[in-house]
Amino acid sequence: MHSIARNYLNQLNADYLQVHRRKEDLFWSTYMGTSDDQAGFTAAEQAYKAFCANPARLPELREMLSQAEEADLKRGLGGWIAFFECNVIEDPAAAALMDELVAAEAALFARRRELKLSLLDEQGQQVAGSLPAASTSLAASPNEAVRQSALAMFHTLEQWVVDNGFLEVVAIRNRFARAMGYRDYFDYKVRKNEQMSPEQLFAVLDDFIARTEQRVQQSLAELKSVKGEAALLPHNLRYFVSGDVTRQLDPYVPFSRALKDWVESFRRLGIQYRDATLTLDLLTREGKYENGFCHGPVPSFWQEDKWVPAVVNFTSLANPAQVGSGWSGLNTLFHEGGHAAHFANVTGNAPCFSQEFPPTSMAYAETQSMFCDSLLDDADWLKRYARNAAGEVIPDSLIKAMIAARQPFRAFNERQIALVSYFERDLYAMEESVRTPDAVLALARQWERKILGTESPRPLLAIPHLLNQESACAYHGYLLALMAVEQTRAYFLQRDGYLTDNPRIGPDLAAHYWGPGNGMTHDETLQSLTGEGFSAVPLAEVCNQSVADAWAQAKACMAAAQQRPPAGEGAPLNARIRVVHGSELIADNSESEARMLADFEGWIRRQSEVEPATPG
Fold first, then answer.
1. Distances, alpha carbon 334 to alpha carbons 266, 341, 368, 376, 380, in Å
2. Which of 170, 269, 598, 614 is 20 to 30 Å from the Cα of 260, by its Cα?
């Protein structure tokens, strides 16, 4: 017979799943552009937030915890207490401000969806623009006018953002945070998301910036001496760093084969999805949210002795007709697929351990996805998977060229992540009377020049994370995650000697990183696997490597891979996989993985034949 506390936990789990799933299903359909039920989504999100912020829950849970005797029951109730402590808004004025904030963000999102942006194509024609298309043009287009138009599109979006409600959203966020007892919204989010104060965060970021300052200045000076001062202009920088390599790499990583590469690589790593249902929407289209993401309408957990498998959706923004999109789409597939693996493997006894919001640390969540996408840059992964249409393996010379193009700007790229936090800290600290559109844009340019040494090729206010409540004031999580990724890579390399197709990696990540969910802190999961606490030093050391050292490391990696016996096929991913394009089903594995991969590749090839490849 169940105790009162056990019944309470079971009912709370069920109630949460209902309100969570409705919100997440509407989130997916509105963000994918398959539904215009913005009002329904807003109502579902408000209902979800009201559930999470219900002040009656905490005293009830504490009472149930005092009655609980079994360790697993105490663990589940304790997880819910941590969850509600992050979300409960006890002050009525703060609760009203949260409702106002949700409505203001929904209105901003709806207006943003209606905004039509444009840029030049390679023929000099003005065409519909998107964030991924502009980024790809800046990296890959040989036409300077096309690159200038891509940067201009970003600046147009920035101006639109500051003129169309974002600054009002910032003001409401600050009023809400102060009603909750924090200095401002940045202070509130850092403490809630990462269990750190802003001072602790910037001690880490300042240390990283100091360790890489000399390297980033050296990188800019070297680029200027080889390519001329114009190479440092924001519309040129990405192209002169990686444009040629992007074009050379493109035939070896066609998007038509991306799904196959993901499935086979994850299988050989021993990654399992524990009977999850995965829906993948991988191609760009008008009306679709312009950033890859992963979310879980159903979190995985044990409901007593019954396993509740995850339902996970993730998206990328590939355009098979655009040069460079195969590589960027593959990176997004591995990144979001890593998120999906994490959220499908959380084995707590309540769904609160497996959801993506606080008390789940963003840095912890991003460590899982970024570790997976880091494998794509490894020389032995490229040798194993990157092949052109004739079946020829990527040549050593191209891998060397990739290192020569990217390694000098590794520090620049990681500092670009830190940049967002410096800007947002000051944005939310500004007095409301001086937080004008011109002042905010000037602040953005000021921090870009200070951290990067030049204005950013991805202007700050064109980054969509700033507009969304969950991702605002959280971008530093990506950099903290990269630090943890380098620690994790170093551990596996020291123990096993290799990463690509290493079948011990999936089970170890599942046991030490994924299984506990937010029941352990980020630092505790690192300690569990690697035996060491969090450190920024390994990432700084990798950023500061010379091209010669990085190439020597890559050659050793490829030589070692040749000595290992070929990896087997690995076990199936243990997932129901559906690949969609909006409302259209492209492929699924209901018959077999092989049939799904063949259907996907054929569909992509047919799309490419309709629209020939363009570089921008």
1. 9, 10, 10, 8, 16
2. 614
Alpha-carbon dihedral of residues 150, 153, 159, 161, nearest 10 degrees?
Answer: -110
The 8-class DSSP code of residue 498 comes to -
Q: How far from 144 is each of 124, 235, 454, CA to CA, in Å?
A: 11, 8, 18
Going from the C-alpha of 89 to that of each of 52, 84, 92, 466, 532, the distances in angstroms are 9, 9, 8, 23, 36
Number of H helices, E strands in the chain: 25, 9
pLDDT at 610: 63
pTM: 0.84
Name the helix (H) or strand (E) containing 127: strand 126-129
Fill in the DSSP letter of residue 614: B
CA–CA distance, 246 with 253 (Å, rounded to integer): 10
DSSP sequence for 191-247: HHHHS--HHHHHHHHHHHHHHHHHHHHHHHHHHHHHH-GGGGSHHHHHIIIIIHHHH
Contact partners, residue 536, CB within 8 Å, separation at least 6:
204, 207, 208, 211, 483
Alpha-carbon radius of gyration of the chain: 24
The 3-state secondary structure of 94-113, one letter per residue: HHHHHHHHHHHHHHHHHHHH
Alpha-carbon span 431 to 599, nearest angstrom: 56
Residue length of the chain: 616
Dihedral, 326, 549, 372, 256 alpha carbons, nearest 10: 20
Helix (H) or strand (E) holding 117: strand 117-120
Q: DSSP letter string over 325-374?
A: HHHHHHHHHHHHHHHHHHHHS---SSGGGGSSSTTS-HHHHHHHHHHHHH
The 3-state DSSP class for residue 504 equals coil
Which string of DSSP letters, residue by residue, matches 373-403? HHGGGSHHHHHHH-B-TT-PBPPHHHHHHHH
Q: Can you list the residues of the chain whose pLDDT is less than 70?
A: 1, 242-244, 610-616
**In the beta sheet, which residues pair with residue 387?**
393
Q: Given this model, what pLDDT does residue 241 score?
A: 84
Let me know: does 124 contact 138? Beta carbons within 8 Å: no
The pair of structure tokens assigned to 611 is: 């629209």
Partner residues linked to 578 by β-bridges = 279, 588
- The dihedral over CA atoms of 400, 405, 407, 411, expressed in degrees to the nearest 10, equals -170
Residue 310 · residue 299 · CB < 8 Å: yes
Q: What is the pLDDT of residues 66-89, one digit of tens each?
A: 999 999 999 999 999 999 999 898
Phi, psi (degrees; rounded to nearest 5) at 315: -140, 145
Report which of 233, 248, 249, 252 is spatially closest to residue 138, judged by C-alpha positions. 233
Q: Closest Cα partner for 351 from 52, 8, 7, 13?
A: 13
CB 54 within 8 A of CB 89: no
- The span from the CA of 177 to the CA of 97, in Å, is 9
- Residues facing residue 588 across a β-bridge: 578
The two three-digit tokens of residue 485, written as one number: 């990724």
pLDDT at 616: 45
Identity (one letter) of the amino acid at 449?
R
Q: Are 421 and 475 in contact (CB under 8 A)?
A: yes
pLDDT digits (tens, 9 = 90+) for 429-480: 999 999 999 999 999 999 999 999 999 999 999 999 999 998 999 999 999 9
